[in-house]
Automatic annotation (TrEMBL):
Superkingdom, taxonomy of origin: Bacteria
GO terms for biological process, alphabetical: methylation
Name listed for the protein in its UniProt record: Class I SAM-dependent methyltransferase
One Pfam match: Methyltransf_24
An example molecular function term from Gene Ontology annotations: methyltransferase activity
Transferase listed as a keyword: yes
Keywords tagged on the record: Methyltransferase, S-adenosyl-L-methionine, Transferase
Organism: Rahnella perminowiae
InterPro entries registered for this protein in UniProt: SAM_O-MeTrfase
Length: 221
């Protein structure tokens, strides 16, 4: 009997359930430890994001299950084979994307993360899900790792790393987009420059705010 799809069958479905449960049970960073203005400053600074994510290095910070499903649906419906991810963490969003690539017949998710302990855990998750062959992890600051050796074309991009860098990462990759490339930005409201760019028709996108503070954009040219 052939299985219906990778996302809703074992090993992927029970693994995602287990990982989301683990993420919910994990300790959360107590932002009250640092003054609110300090957090806001770090969130919006192009030099402080390393300090911010170093404070958050044990936090899972995954996309919601709904956003994960949305990623799978978009990758399936666009028949994506070339996907780039900014911000992997423990790899939950990556698992949804890799499941879609498997069901599309193959491809590659190039994903990025600068925290080595997260990279090690994510690698284990990809092995457990049986999708390691579909994932290339680039370890280091995505401003560097996503600036080189890019695929000829990118079908889908997810932005989920340091919010302040969304526009910089978009500009790094933009020349590889084609009409129909989907860009999904999680918690995009933290970066108004990014939103202004993708919401301006003259820049070649059509863009809508979605649930869970996701901005969904499509490249038109
Ligand atoms: C919100 S989490 C990603 C969650 C992940 N997409 C998921 O659904 O499981 C953001 C991650 O991006 C990483 N990150 C932030 N800025 C980065 C950068 N400039 N380069 C590489 N990784 C970065 C952080 O260390 C953190 O683990």
């Amino acid at each position: 009997m052939t299985k219906e799809n990778t996302l809703t069958c074992a090993p992927m479905a029970p693994l995602l359930d287990h990982l989301f449960n683990e993420a919910s049970a994990a300790a959360r960073f107590d932002f009250t430890q640092i003054p609110e203005e300090e957090t806001t400053r770090m969130m919006h600074s192009k030099t402080e994001y390393l300090n911010l994510y170093s404070l958050l290095k044990h936090m899972w910070l995954p996309v919601s299950r709904e956003t994960g499903k949305l990623l799978y649906m978009l990758a399936r419906s666009t028949k994506a084979t070339s996907v780039v991810e900014f911000g992997m963490s423990f790899g939950l969003s990556t698992l949804y994307l890799a499941a879609a690539l498997r069901d599309n017949g193959g491809g590659k998710v190039i994903t990025s993360e600068f925290e080595p302990t997260k990279v090690a855990k994510a690698r284990e998750h990809f092995v457990q899900a049986g999708v390691s062959d579909l994932v290339e992890i680039r370890v280091g600051d995505a401003l560097n790792t996503l600036a080189v050796d890019l695929p000829e074309t990118i079908d889908l991009l997810i932005l989920d790393g340091a919010k302040v860098l969304y526009d910089d990462i978009l500009h790094l990759l933009e020349s590889r987009f084609h009409p129909g490339t989907m860009i999904i930005a999680d918690n995009a409201s933290y970066n108004q420059n990014y939103l202004t760019h993708v919401r301006s028709a003259e820049n070649g996108y059509l863009s809508v705010p979605f649930s869970d503070d996701v901005e969904l954009s499509v490249r038109l040219r």
